[in-house]
Specification:
Four copies of one chain form a homotetramer. By secondary structure, chain A is α/β, with parallel strands linked by helices. Chain A folds into two domains: about 120 residues, NAD(P)-binding Rossmann-like Domain (Rossmann fold, 3-Layer(aba) Sandwich), CATH 3.40.50; about 160 residues, Dihydrodipicolinate Reductase, domain 2 (2-Layer Sandwich). Chain A is built from eleven helices and 14 strands. In chain A, strands 3-2-1-4-5-7-6 form a seven-stranded parallel β-sheet, with helices on both faces. Chain A is globular and about 60 Å long. At the A-C interface, helix 1 and helix 10 of A face helix 1 and helix 10 of C.
Amino acid sequence: MKVAVVGASGYTGLELLRILLRHPRTEIVAVTSEQRAGLPLGEAFPSLAGLSDLCFERAEPAALAGRADLCFTCLPHAASAPSVAELRKAGVAVVDLSADFRLADPATYERAYGPHGAPELFGAAVYGLPELHREALADCDFVASPGCYPTSVLLPLVPFLRRGLVEPRVLVDSKSGVSGAGRKLEAGFLFAEIDENVSAYKVGGVHRHVPEMEEQGSLAAGEDVVVTFVPHLLPTIRGIATTVFTRPRTSLPQAEARAVLEEAYAEEPFVRVLPEGATPSLAGVRGSNFCDVQAVMDERTGSLILLAALDNLVKGASGQAVQAMNLMRGFPETEALLEAPLVP
Amino acid sequence: MKVAVVGASGYTGLELLRILLRHPRTEIVAVTSEQRAGLPLGEAFPSLAGLSDLCFERAEPAALAGRADLCFTCLPHAASAPSVAELRKAGVAVVDLSADFRLADPATYERAYGPHGAPELFGAAVYGLPELHREALADCDFVASPGCYPTSVLLPLVPFLRRGLVEPRVLVDSKSGVSGAGRKLEAGFLFAEIDENVSAYKVGGVHRHVPEMEEQGSLAAGEDVVVTFVPHLLPTIRGIATTVFTRPRTSLPQAEARAVLEEAYAEEPFVRVLPEGATPSLAGVRGSNFCDVQAVMDERTGSLILLAALDNLVKGASGQAVQAMNLMRGFPETEALLEAPLVP
Amino acid sequence: MKVAVVGASGYTGLELLRILLRHPRTEIVAVTSEQRAGLPLGEAFPSLAGLSDLCFERAEPAALAGRADLCFTCLPHAASAPSVAELRKAGVAVVDLSADFRLADPATYERAYGPHGAPELFGAAVYGLPELHREALADCDFVASPGCYPTSVLLPLVPFLRRGLVEPRVLVDSKSGVSGAGRKLEAGFLFAEIDENVSAYKVGGVHRHVPEMEEQGSLAAGEDVVVTFVPHLLPTIRGIATTVFTRPRTSLPQAEARAVLEEAYAEEPFVRVLPEGATPSLAGVRGSNFCDVQAVMDERTGSLILLAALDNLVKGASGQAVQAMNLMRGFPETEALLEAPLVP
Amino acid sequence: MKVAVVGASGYTGLELLRILLRHPRTEIVAVTSEQRAGLPLGEAFPSLAGLSDLCFERAEPAALAGRADLCFTCLPHAASAPSVAELRKAGVAVVDLSADFRLADPATYERAYGPHGAPELFGAAVYGLPELHREALADCDFVASPGCYPTSVLLPLVPFLRRGLVEPRVLVDSKSGVSGAGRKLEAGFLFAEIDENVSAYKVGGVHRHVPEMEEQGSLAAGEDVVVTFVPHLLPTIRGIATTVFTRPRTSLPQAEARAVLEEAYAEEPFVRVLPEGATPSLAGVRGSNFCDVQAVMDERTGSLILLAALDNLVKGASGQAVQAMNLMRGFPETEALLEAPLVP
């Protein structure tokens, strides 16, 4: 299958290329970038030297229609919607990695991101979390790939929400490596500012990823889920570690809590429920499409603690997008994705 | 004043020496260590070469009596109690950095640490958090210096507990640099295991520091405070960043929430309430005795989020111990401690 | 082909498993370890959970004979030789990752490592640097896989030595990530000691890797090559960056210097000669089997500076071992090895 | 004494403030910055909150004349010269941290930096390396504070050059933390690009710091010294580790090589010659004004290897500038500078 990557000059674009280059069923026919048009891939990304002869180009979305069967769009939110609209109009299948098509409620979108660039397509995409929406993905042409933070919250939490086991008021403390912010040139992302440092950010306001968690969480719970979310910036390149504090509605012994996760994910290739006593770690998933989860019932205080770790650029972005593509096209779901994490 | 450091070969010992070497009113007369006895300080700790002519010695506590007016004891918990008992019997003032004398309830101590090595002294020490117990410290000879995690939780939380503003069920997510574990030779603390990694540990059981938080919290609240505590290990050498999730009993607008902290700490030299919108960071306190705090009311979800950052080896251990000594001896409280953080 | 990994519980063992798990032509039939015998792979290495059902076993080398066609031995030097001897006697092909069979001169070996454990096999292995000894590898059953430091020195240097372009007195400054030391439990490898730190080690004595550089270098030069070698420990998990200072025998303009490398490596899949002006970086090769090289002629001072970067666990160890196996068995040389580096 | 810091918004400015705030004989009367004028110090640099009431101002240099007795100028090269000229004209003593007044030869300056902004002052400043020019500093009003790389090269090398013990052709491999590049907003200094990475830069051309090394080296040697210099960027915030490869003119046994350093620095408070067998490390000097040095004679290969480590922001910049000021004003040379390194 011929695929193109639109807006490929950032970290999610680079990660997509890394994965697609080893995919036996896809051929990358185009990579586009405004800033880097004309540059060979291996010059823009020295790590890819020798692996591809492609050059970045400044292609209009419509011009990709004849060339690619499916496009991954890695543009910033708001910028993505119009390009996606053009691609869809031209009949190209799309996996969009921006936030533009993840939400169901237009008002919520506008509060978080401002006016939507393709309102006619609002609600048209399938939310690309295979563990929640595998069937819908299997037969669609348009996917909104989930955010990294929401994936790390929803995977451990949804099984409990679906069964109505926990109260719908949820507290989340997430820690993310800096690649989650992309390649932004801000003083706050300089090495000398990040190394040996950790701090919370955007506390108390509505972080843009919260509506996504609340919408999908509410969908699973069948009632309104409210999330207090405190994200932190870590001195790591990759990875998200998330801790979710919840409260069981009725007694939930430790063994039952873990069984909820084990039953939910027994057949899932990319969600690993860790053995009793083990906790998810960024190292355990580095460079891979795994999301490791754990449930710990603190019986003394009545808190159910859910833990998750994933690589924000793989299961939190580009790997998940390829997983969705595999499902859309009927390829084996794990194709190009079942690599061992890079440890140490 | 003549001081000695007992069990000085670990990180808190080294940090104490770093601070005491610049203290204008103390003379270090002895540093003891089982393993390093005989070694010049500058050989055991190359960073101290040229700064002191002392050698480690294997002194019995009692033998220090004639030589030192005050001893800092940096021994592991359980090992500390008998040494402290000897020193106290010999009339030496003690600031103990272990956990052995921090708790008020012997049963709680035994559950967490096993049998106590000097039960006759249980309850004899003042809990050395100057911001809570300054007056008691001013006239005492025996101090139990607080743990790093409890300091980071109590400083932002206690002002709210004292006024009865929040419910006594508190959720805490803490992140600590690896020096908090001391110089332990375990595979889990090797660079290749910690770097680019983050994970929670000791989740759900009672972390040893929880009783200390709950005791001091309850004391401040006048009712039982219960803490769900999830500690994480960070890829940093120093620093603790703590996020406390609480729930106001009645409406507490953002401005009032911050005012609670500002009023509590207006006169405190080492607790800095950050400006509205700023969040505490490890970098902002690195190498210093400051604890930076912030309060953020998430009005949409009804959660009050309290944030703190401190250097676990300074305000979380050795700096706090010197601060207590300054108070015990009537020195200016900030002596040797008002250094600017090492930034970048 | 059925393969086994002997002594698989360290970092090179883990890395071999990571690579072999994606190799389409090999089946891992056994992984052995003294300490971890009985443990499922996914428990010993949580990153491998879900990827393999193997358990560590405590197999005698001879017992592997019927089960595996080829063994990778990842034992420490000296311990490796007797196991390799048994395997060879039983007719099993071996790729040995220790230092035991890399040297040609027994006296040199003994000076560096002490008595040899299988003197009858001394000199029997092919030195497994495919870029130097591809033909010999193609038809052999016993390979001594090169050390990480020597690979990083030889690849940029040998093309100049072969043509007699530089003086045989060479100065090398190498910097290595800590995984090069394996999983050793020494205080010096703790995170708090390595992070934010760099230092040289084993300066001036004969580092164990020097004889390997000098032997292979002399072989290429046809005269005695002498190497002054200063290794440094870096605060990174992976990677070696090497700077070689040499002196051209006659005028060697910059363009010609680079052309020497370009000609030598035009057909090599894993050695990338960087574009003029670019310098090799650890990031550019992280997790991959590439070795990036560059030549810079400092015409003002008459020094030819050669630069190389590789991942010590891949091209410096396990990747190179698989590359050798591919050649030994007539598989495509790049099988399982042409992965894009993990960037960022 | 009243001092001002001109151009204080970068890392060297911040470090100067950190040191001056603890200096018992100086009062900081002004800190200037174009971009940050009006901001309280504690807002621009949160780490300094609570330590100073100063605000940044946009003062003309001349306007500082009446207010400050001595100015530290932390402006970029070329921008510094005219400001320094104004200050000197107004009779203010100056310690300039830029490169503008370090060189003796105007032609060399212009080749490296372009036209000089105050040619009339060229050669008027004393080169502020106290270990080489203590006497000249003791009675001067204008100091050019040395660069970080040259300090790390000259301190271990000059004792050998002065005695004519080594050949004047010197090879230097230096590794620097990123704060050496200041707070520059370039993609190459982002955390995700620097962490887990190392690479050489500006290889082969004349790095701007080379003329400074060669001028001071030649002055010490009494003959032309030529330096081949390869700088590397490290994933650390602070620190420079330098390895110098030299060749003794005649036999120089190890004991004599170390004795050369020991004799040269026996009385120096900030240069520590490490014990036999120890190597300088960034950690050993972190946050301090020490420069640790070592000499190792590799008798087998005839290379004398000199090693040095310093904190680029302290002994490599702001600490050294304060050391010069102490000498200029007859204060104790170690005032405010004899702090223990921040370890771990």
